[in-house]
């Protein structure tokens, strides 16, 4: 095949294009036929073919968990730096990058640095840029609806990938047109990255071509609600008071749309039957049906390794739970913070204290119930079972919409009755009958109870100014350092610094 495709040489980004036969969205979303005997610009000249490239742009989301180089699930990498879970595993050299992150002592060395989020985010950005280029080249062959919908979808995906880089690394290269030379894009400061990405996301939202929620066939695709949640996450993390009103209007529009509602039973969210349910706004989709991910080809369509990572090792306790590798044990203090009548406690914390299993490093007897490995969840895979659990990773839920709206109303001196109502809806869904006043501290605490294991807590502590007082040495000798502003951004992997020929500046760490 003749090809005009550019090979992008940002070190770890210099890999082959993401494969086109993917499960990027709902299992039935799209089967893709690869191009044959055409340049890419010739092939990607119709809506159906550009849609194939758009589907491929979802693939990096799926391989954050494992990309043949590193385990880097977004939720786990965030949570090990907070105060709900330990890293666990076989010891401090087992997934050493996570142990270093948990103690705020990461370095740029290959064994210490978080490379997986960097690599996969830039693969996603590259692919999104390609889609937008194809769309512009083929605009005359597309209806206005086709062009606008796919462009908005690609732009929102690109913003999501940049959001991960911005949160974890801060000061990163930024580009919206792919380049032909290594690190041709300028490295921007974190505040500059924020402004560039949030402005681009605003432009995407203004296209107004995506539905608030897709139908079941397209479940898992970026929708308007997901774009609103991403926008609000970034605005709140940046503490961008000038955009609070816009973010609040998006949350209120999402709420008033009537297309989302809380799942009555919190534990049901985490079942396979709870995927893409009434509370789901955006999930990274995994399936065990003909799951073909393998150690030699983790980019294949299929499931996730996250449940295997966090399950109890040599599990013999029955009840459908499968064995795991003992990462991410929940702290005793996390279990204890719940009221005993709070239904989120047992749905979140799997109590194995009296069970028979092999206790690993930092074991507490509590495991993450939301994504625990269960035999039924990878029974239909056809490759490596470790990599093919069907547990979707929940990124945005309606509960977060309500808590975002409550917090933004308080921060903007808005309608306190509505703020109280939004907080009560989440609080009471957990089976609690008391009313907590809608204060910033109470809303942050409700988020803590609601989102254990979902990768929210660390970023909440930073944006609320609580990180330096909460993220301190523990009584067990596991975390010996205190978080500080100098630790806000992880070091850029040294491989990227070396490949940049002096154009990348390392973060302080």
How is this structure best described in words?
The protein has 509 residues and is mainly alpha-helical. 39% of the residues lie in helices and 4% in strands. It has helices at residues 40-43, 47-56, 59-62, 74-79, 96-102, 116-137, 144-169, 190-207, 224-238, 244-256, 306-310, 332-336, 343-348, 398-411, 416-429, 440-450, 457-463, 467-470, 494-499, and strands spanning 172-173, 187-188, 280-284, 349-351, 366-368, 393-397. A two-stranded antiparallel ribbon has the order 1-2. Strands 3-6 form a two-stranded antiparallel ribbon. A two-stranded antiparallel sheet has the order 4-5. The chain is globular. The N and C termini lie far apart (46 Å). Residues 1-24 and 27-32 have low confidence and may be disordered.
**Average pLDDT, to the nearest integer?**
92
- Tertiary shape: globular
Task: Give the total of beta strands.
Answer: 6
C-alpha Rg, in Å?
Answer: 22 Å
Which stretches of 5+ consecutive residues score pLDDT under 50? Answer: 1-24, 27-32
């Amino acid at each position: 095949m003749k090809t005009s495709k550019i090979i992008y040489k940002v070190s770890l980004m210099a890999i082959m294009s993401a494969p086109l036969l993917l499960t990027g969205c709902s299992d039935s979303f799209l089967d893709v036929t690869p191009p044959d005997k055409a340049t890419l610009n010739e092939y990607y000249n119709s809506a159906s073919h550009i849609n194939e490239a758009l589907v491929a742009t979802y693939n990096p989301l799926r391989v954050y968990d494992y990309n043949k180089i590193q385990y880097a699930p977004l939720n786990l990498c965030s949570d090990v730096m907070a105060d709900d879970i330990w890293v666990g595993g076989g010891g401090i050299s087992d997934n050493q990058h996570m142990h270093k992150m948990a103690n705020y002592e990461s370095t740029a060395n290959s064994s210490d640095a978080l490379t997986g989020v960097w690599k996969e985010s830039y693969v996603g950005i590259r692919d999104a840029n390609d889609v937008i280029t194809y769309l512009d080249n083929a605009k005359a062959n597309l209806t206005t609806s086709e062009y606008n919908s796919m462009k908005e979808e690609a732009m929102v995906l690109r913003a999501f990938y940049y959001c991960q880089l911005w949160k974890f690394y801060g000061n990163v290269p930024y580009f919206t047109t792919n380049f032909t030379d290594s690190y041709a894009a300028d490295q921007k400061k974190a505040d500059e990255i924020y402004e560039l990405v949030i402005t681009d996301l605003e432009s995407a939202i203004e296209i107004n071509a995506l539905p608030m929620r897709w139908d079941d066939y397209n479940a898992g695709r970026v929708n308007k609600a997901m774009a609103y949640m991403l926008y609000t996450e970034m605005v709140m993390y940046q503490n961008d008071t000038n955009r609070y009103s816009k973010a609040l209007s998006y949350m209120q529009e999402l709420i008033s749309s009537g297309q989302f509602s809380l799942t009555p039973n919190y534990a049901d969210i985490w079942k396979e039957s709870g995927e893409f349910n009434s509370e789901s706004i955006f999930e990274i989709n995994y399936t065990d049906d003909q799951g073909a991910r393998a150690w030699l080809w983790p980019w294949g369509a299929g499931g996730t390794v996250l449940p295997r990572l966090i399950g109890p090792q040599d599990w013999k306790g029955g009840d459908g739970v499968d064995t795991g590798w003992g990462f991410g044990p929940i702290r005793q203090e996390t279990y204890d913070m719940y009221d005993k009548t709070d239904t989120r406690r047992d749905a979140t914390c799997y109590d194995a204290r009296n069970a028979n299993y092999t206790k690993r490093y930092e074991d507490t007897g509590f495991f993450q119930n939301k994504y625990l490995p269960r035999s039924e969840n990878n029974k239909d895979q056809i490759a490596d079972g470790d990599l093919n659990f069907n547990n979707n990773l929940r990124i945005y839920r309606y509960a977060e919409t309500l808590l975002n709206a409550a917090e933004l109303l308080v921060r903007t001196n808005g309608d306190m009755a509505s703020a109280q109502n939004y907080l009560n809806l989440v609080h009471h869904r957990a089976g609690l009958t008391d009313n907590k006043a809608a204060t910033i501290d109470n809303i942050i605490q409700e988020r803590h109870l609601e989102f254990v294991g979902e990768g929210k807590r660390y970023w909440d502590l930073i944006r609320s100014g609580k990180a330096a007082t909460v993220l301190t040495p523990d009584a067990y000798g596991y975390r010996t350092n205190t978080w500080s502003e100098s630790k806000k951004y992880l070091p850029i992997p040294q491989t990227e610094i070396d490949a940049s020929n002096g154009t990348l500046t390392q973060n302080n760490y």
